Amino acid sequence: MGRDVLILTEADLRRTVPLDRAAVDATERAFVALAGKGVVMPPVMSMQIEAANGEVDVKAAYLPGFDGFAVKISPGFFDNPAQGLPSLSGMMVLLSAQTGLVEAVFLDRGYLTELRTAAAGAVAARALAPSLVETVCVMGTGAQARLQVMAAHLVRPFARVLVWGRDAERAAGCAADIATALGVEARAEPDAASAVAAAQIVITATPARAPILRAEWLHPGMHVTAMGSDQDGKGELAPEILSRALYIADRVSQAEVMGELRGAMRAGVWTGGRPPELGDVLTGRHPGRTSPAQITVCDLTGTGAQDTAIATHALALARRAGAGLRLDA
User: For position 86, what pLDDT does the model report?
Assistant: First the structure.
């Protein structure tokens, strides 16, 4: 007996699955589920393909209460731009949690990953950032830097954005794009310390392998969302930051091997034992921010749970819109 499988391209998904509050809420469900029982989320499978300057990550997660579970393949081949090809690509497959049959294939070229990563930043900001935010500093000038700022604006509307990047021209371009998209004041700030000092939310969105945010720049009341450290060897925060702030991991087991927590542990400056996870804050197991002056840090390494949540959300929207191609499998 045949069963329909929905095939969706990047263009289909960009038309039907926007970065909005619904996407943020769907992603929050993933973190809430991670705080419960019955989750099956294996360690990230990662392959380095040095001959082609490439890497491939595979993530998956089964979450109780979700009708399906996603398996995602994320390649990054960093010599591609010289050939006129994108560095990042990928796809997701959503399978039924009851039968294991394929329900949808998302040929998204990384779009859903971009979306759920930005949405996770918004979940963190909604849970941990100060209630009033006037200025956001983003360290980074790529697509995710833009998306993180747009997602944060959904939950903490702000009037000003300061963009810091190593390339002044790219920083100016990123600021211009943000100003156009959000209708806020946005400008490049060449001095990172000044940008951080002026902001209530600081977002780090780079592939840095050496700290770009220094501990001496921390100031009362700020929130940091760090999302660039998703592999061993990467790290955006000075290790001392974690011991001077309320540190929250998206998933401790991942943060210990590929997140900012790994760097702090290796440097010998982490003495806090097992840190809370974002799901603990969302479910009330941990109070999160307890005073306006508290400094908070959320370390987003990217989880398979987020992929399952955004894939489930995308399938529901696609079915509602009649998008994609149905195949009899």
Answer: 84
